[in-house]
Design brief:
CATH topology of the largest domain: FAD/NAD(P)-binding domain
Oligomer: single chain
Number of domains: 3
Strand content: 15-25%
Number of helices: 18
Length: 532
């Protein structure tokens, strides 16, 4: 086997970001992917081909909406449009159809259009929303800068704020104490304090919940505050499906002389005298590399590929104790005859441009959380619906449509003797039923579906216990605590072994920051001329 400068384990988007930067810097890169298709959880597959629909449907099997990566500069630096990436703007980015009467709140990239939409449904909160966005925008300029550098060992609040302090005060005079309190509050309280309308509260809390922690979790206030950044970046979807992003990065790596090999699950990282030397695949192929970068889950990497004998009992146990949580949610990927016609917004030409937030009330979400905490699937799941075939006909070419419906909170480990393989279809129908309650025309319009329970997500993507963020996004597992303090800067105790996945700072979502930061650390540690 030839020798490589860098071997990247896994073709998830963070790993490919690292690979792109290293290939661009002259490194000979090899990416090993365990599945047939590249992309990890940013991947699109063709499904449901038939005589009636010979083209089938382009189905995202992981993330679909791309927001955070558009705030990083990565796409522009890598010039990924040269390699086939073409984004479609989602505007409005998301919409909240009212559950009990006509009306919808549209969240546009343009702040003023959003304020006008809120005014039509909740006039008491129109200006409150404008102030909310203004307040959190100042904070999040600094937080974003902290996301795009490796975390230091300094105080956590200092780490969040230092970028903003370079450009001026984060808070207006007299707001410092209240501002810090909001950052350290739960996002449920932040929203409840800021707004009066139950509809706006439900919409904002449900979208903030996509990061994982429950609305009452301390120090999650900015999960709601990040709403302000959507008015800067917007939300987008790659033409032809979410996998357009990872396909473009793979093409860039190939153009720079790199290689990508699929169906190559890695069994172990070969370590000699405390230094990573190569990887061994499940079919006993050995690949030698000067540097090894794992885009796999931190526990998969350290507990299985590295192993106890190379970590020692103490560190092995610490990695074992990283909070992965008990599942997150599940999703149904549907081919349907037509688009939902929401009772709250009949003939609305814009509601299918973005995400549709289907959570009738804050209490409705807490009821679902209560079921989750009892290790039961929610009786009434909160749903985020996505209908990309409206803005991207390439995903459904035969006059039909796609409907993806993500729901929370679904425990990986179930009580009462339940097993996911036995109940997955029952729970999938519950999710589809939420859509039909909002849009009765969808009754009987399902052509076929691809169900992903928490167990299915683990099997498909290697996301342990179905946690799409890898590990919990709680206060004590962010910044320099993620995934452990001694690994927070993408380095490991094994020399020349690096991490680049969402297990690391700053966490999950289609962001790319972990891969970007890992590449920066590697390029700093291994100047190209000194690599060999």
């Amino acid at each position: 086997m030839p020798k490589y400068d860098t071997i990247i384990i896994g073709s998830g988007h963070n790993g490919l970001v690292t690979g792109c930067y290293l290939a661009k810097a002259g490194y000979k890169v090899l990416v090993l992917e365990r599945r047939e298709n590249i992309g990890g959880a940013v991947c699109t597959e063709t499904m449901f081909c038939s005589e009636e629909n010979p083209h089938g449907f382009r189905i995202d099997v992981g993330s679909s909406v791309h927001i955070m990566i558009h705030q990083t500069g990565i796409l522009e630096e890598l010039e990924l449009e040269k390699y086939g990436l073409d984004y479609i703007e989602m505007d409005p980015m998301m919409s909240y159809p009212l559950p009990d009467r006509k009306g919808v709140i549209h969240f546009y990239k343009d702040l003023e259009k959003t304020v006008d939409s809120i005014r039509r449904v909740a006039p008491e909160d129109a200006e409150n929303y404008r102030e909310f966005v203004k307040f959190w925008s100042r904070i999040n300029q600094g937080v974003l800068k902290a996301f795009l550098v490796p975390p230091s060992g300094k105080n956590l609040v200092t780490e969040m704020m230092k970028g903003q302090f370079r450009d001026g005060s984060m808070f207006r005079k007299g707001e410092q104490t209240a501002g810090i309190q909001k950052i350290l509050s739960s996002y449920g309280k932040v929203v409840d304090d800021a707004f009066e309308s139950p509809y706006l509260k439900a919409a904002l809390i449900w979208f903030a919940a996509q990061s994982g922690p429950t609305p009452d979790m301390p120090a999650t206030g900015d999960f709601a505050g990040w709403q302000s950044m959507l008015h800067q970046s917007g939300a987008k979807h790659p033409r032809g499906g979410s996998g357009g992003l990872t396909r473009a990065m793979a093409e860039m790596i190939r153009r720079y002389g790199g290689e990508i090999k699929t169906n190559r699950p890695v069994r172990s990282i070969e370590i000699e005298n405390g230094r990573a030397r190569g990887v061994l695949t499940e079919n006993n192929d050995y690949y030698e590399g000067d540097l090894i970068v794992s885009n796999a889950h931190v526990q998969t990497t350290m507990l299985k590929m590295v192993g106890r004998k190379n970590l020692g009992d103490h560190l092995f146990k610490r990695v074992e104790n990283i909070q992965v949580g008990n599942g997150f949610g599940m999703v149904i990927r549907c081919a349907v005859e037509e688009l939902p016609e929401y009772d709250a917004a009949p003939d609305d030409p814009e509601i299918h441009n973005g995400m549709q937030l289907l959570a009738p009330s804050v209490q409705y979400m807490y009821d679902a959380i209560g079921d989750y905490q009892k290790k039961r699937p929610p009786e009434n799941p909160a749903v985020l619906a996505m209908t990309f075939s409206k803005i991207d006909p390439e995903v459904a070419k035969d006059g039909k449509h796609t409907l993806f419906a993500w729901a929370q909170w679904h425990p990986y480990e179930l009580s009462g003797g339940l097993a996911w393989d036995d109940i997955r279809e029952r729970e999938a129908h519950k999710i589809y039923d939420v859509v039909t309650r909002y849009a009765p025309n969808m009754e009987g319009k399902l052509i076929d579906w691809y169900i992903q329970s928490p167990l299915d997500i683990e099997r498909k993507h290697g996301l342990l216990r179905g946690n799409v963020m890898h590990v919990e996004m709680n206060f004590d597992q962010m910044f320099m605590f993620r995934p452990l303090p001694e690994m927070s800067r993408y380095e490991t105790p094994i020399k020349n072994l690096y991490l680049s996945s969402a297990s690391c700072h700053p966490g999950g979502g289609v962001f790319g920051a972990a891969g970007y930061n890992a590449a920066g650390v590697i390029l700093k540690n291994h100047k190209r001329k000194k690599l060999f």
